[in-house]
């Protein structure tokens, strides 16, 4: 009953863990979406060179990670995406040279 309730005695560690996990997923998702949209905007809408766009977005990703105090896994992810972008851009560049474009 209501009289049995004592304020502040409930164990909320699971609730806190769930909320912390939700916030981490939200932060990661927001940053990844922002970095992706920034790269696509710079490369296609603004017309910057793909490599300059990739380098700029990687720098923005690292700075955003520092500002939001992300763990090392964020920087590994940004580095991995940078390498993936280099490989994809290099393959496209090779095909364009091979096809005479």
TrEMBL record:
Source taxon at top rank: Bacteria
Transmembrane segments: 21-44, 50-68, 75-99
Domain Cytochrome c oxidase subunit IV bacterial aa3 type: 5-44
Any Pfam family the entry gives: COX4_pro_2
Classification via Gene3D superfamilies: Bacterial aa3 type cytochrome c oxidase subunit IV
SUPFAM superfamilies documented for this protein: Bacterial aa3 type cytochrome c oxidase subunit IV (SSF81469)
Keywords, in A-Z order: Membrane, Transmembrane, Transmembrane helix
The name this protein goes by in its record: Cytochrome c oxidase subunit IV bacterial aa3 type domain-containing protein
